[in-house]
Please model this.
Amino acid sequence: MSTELTVGFLPLVDACLPILAKEHGFAEEEGVTLSLVKDMSWATVLDRLLYGHSDAAHLVAPLAIAATLGRGRPAQSLSVPFVLGLNGNAVTLRPEIARMVRPEGQIGDAAEVGAALKTIAQERKAAGKPLTFGVVHRYSSHNYMLRYWLAGCGIRPDIDVDITTVPPPFCADALKQGEVDGICVGEPWNSVAVEQGAGEIVLSTAQIWRRGVEKVLALREQVLDEKREGVQRLIRALCKAGAHFVDPVNWELNAEILARPEYLDGSAELIRRAISDQLLIARGGALIHYPDFMFQYREAANFPWVSQAEWLYTQMVRWDNVPFDAQDAQRAARVFRPDVYRSALLGTGEPLPGASSKVEGSIETSMVVSTQQGAIQLEPNTFFDGEVFDPSDIEGYLSRLP
Amino acid sequence: MRIAVIDESAARASIIQEGLVALDDCEIFVLTERRGLLARIGEINPDIVLMDLGNPSRDVLEEYFSVSRALDRPIAMFVDESDDESIAASVEAGVSSYVVDGLAPNRIRPILDLAITRFNAFSRLQNDLAAAKGKLAERETIDAAKRILMNSKGLPEPKAYAELRKAAMNQGKRIVDIAEAIVTADRLMGDH
Model:
């Protein structure tokens, strides 16, 4: 008997796994009939999830936690049994600023770009026209990554610079019109800005946190309980889609599928670049290969590490300016559901980590970790400032942050 | 009561506006431009904001509301916390509404109901239009298939159509599906 599941998504490259699970029949193979609903804003994707139009959604990870904690709207518990991908975003600045902060024709070193930007931010603030950045949503990884980087470079968000919300389709336009000086957004929107000459890429967010959690598959906790079996099948289908997605043989085909009007409705060429970690950082320049720009499958990337949810909670405390609350921290941690991931994939060939939490940012060289099933080699997962996040000492971490 | 309608589709905005003016003591402001949206909302200082779900600027609006809350300005929230049913109905119709906290629910309800009706009316119009366009495309495919049959088999037009209909009936398919198959086959087999 086939389970019917509806998944909401925004037209972004990292909505690829549900789309490919449907298109290549991985979902059908697992006995899941998948319908996809495209929306234009995260608020709408979340509405559909909360009011039952969709069973699951492609969602910015912090928003799943914000919804659970009742930030900005009445609280409803969401669950994340699967991470759709890591990173895949970039920081794009107006061309004249980009050229002042990064070496010609290359993406810069995060700390060096930040240091150069600090000087400009101070000048602009003194002149009464502070630098303005656009992020895609208040509760987005983009917002947290950008703020983490700025703060780590001595630029105080909300005090030295302004950060505002700009929907991805308007990013290039907002840069061109001077409404913002920089954006932190997912692909293909950085490339769109570059193609239009509105901006130049200075950093990929993978340089800020090498293994930063990005989009997740979110469900209402109640729906997860009711449709647990179907969700587990969906997880298996998404894993197969992940393996297909990262195989270079399939890049061309998958880029074409994603480019279709019912999905991203965009350029297959730009999408293929994102899939293959290729970035054009300035119009007329050469493509740069940045390994791990976007991370969909390897190293059990889809495993919902509880420590990732906890890190997101620390950033919410930091930037919403609310005190740390042990109960909130626990509720945030429980949003990520490694138990569901494990039960879905037990007995398949997918590797399963032995632990559900790890010290984020602690791996500097490739290492093998203990597992429940299969073999997992983890590559560096460092933060650009060398800081580590130990989930057993959240308060200590918060007190160390600038 | 001051109502802001944010809609990049001027046609839909006017349908909603038309419905709302029938209500007593409502001042309606229609915003169709993305640029300067928040500044305009600040100026208007509306009691209720209506916006279609397909608008990417919704995230911007939510950000604005949470910031104004932090600044101790009137709190805006997603309808009434307790009224899940009407929220679900508005989402269903494709409208998201934001109401300033403290506004009596009995004053919101008629506006919301009206907005939902108007949104549904607009989507019916859209569906009719899409259906009409679809019919037109089907017509063209059938004409193309008829021409292919007329040219390749030397049939007069009524006979060509009869052939299509017969094939459709025999195979339990729609005429347009048969026509499409013929057009595709012709494209593959023909030298054009």
Q: What stands out?
A: The longest helix of chain A spans residues 228-246.
